[in-house]
Amino acid sequence: MDSAHQTGTDPRKARIEEMRRAEHARQRRNRVVVIAASAVAAAGLVAGGAVLLNTRSGDDKSTSASAGATRSSGMGGVKSGTDGAKNGGRTGSGHFVTGADGVRTWKGTLTRNHVAGPVKYPMEPPVGGDHNPVWQNCDGEVYTEPVRNENAVHALEHGAVWVTYNGKASEADVAALAAKVRRTPYTLMSPVADQKDPIMMSAWAHQRTVTGAGDPNVDKFFAAFVQGAQTPEPGAACTGGLGQ
């Protein structure tokens, strides 16, 4: 697995680099806010504990009844969370429409909830829907083993293009595509054994088949959909997620 290295003055690359800088600055600000909030929360817990002890000393009967109500409410919350994890996620509703350029576009809704469990997608590879809270790293990463759909879909939400292939793809095409992915930020590549065509490319709500690494539609798809207009969260990180 390698990360991409940017060179040149290509406008798209410059825009992606600017988005990266903005994302890193946002992450630094968030860390400061989290640290400050944690300190305030800790102080609140200490004060709350002292109040609770005083209340118990003053009125044992009232505290016992209140604790019973709290336990009942807490158990309901835990059950709801557990059910959500077991049930997994969903994708929404819709269907693919193929354009004159060969790109299949999902017409309908694609849900975007974070879920802990597996998601049953109506297409393979998936192009959107509920997904894992952790994205698959997509800064020009080439994975030689399959990745989880739920993590890859989160990368698509961040504006990545996902290149996939099965056992029918030639070794030469796989090697050439891997080299291109390594040079391109906001992309990732992995094998998907049960996809219908040897080589496919996916972005959020979009997908197409290409005939090989030399197919001009490879460059066209990258140009249109790497951080393209379809991106639900433009500029979001493609690093700091799940690697392999």
Automatic annotation (TrEMBL):
Compositional bias per record (Low complexity), positions renumbered to this chain: 63-73
Listed InterPro entries: DUF3105
Transmembrane segments: 32-53
Name used for this protein in its record: DUF3105 domain-containing protein
The keyword Transmembrane belongs to this UniProt entry's keyword annotation: yes
Source taxonomy: Bacteria, Bacillati, Actinomycetota, Actinomycetes, Kitasatosporales
Top-level division of the source organism's lineage: Bacteria
UniProt region (Disordered), positions on chain: 54-100
Alphabetical UniProt keywords: Membrane, Transmembrane, Transmembrane helix
Species for this entry: Streptomyces anandii
Pfam families listed in its UniProt record: DUF3105
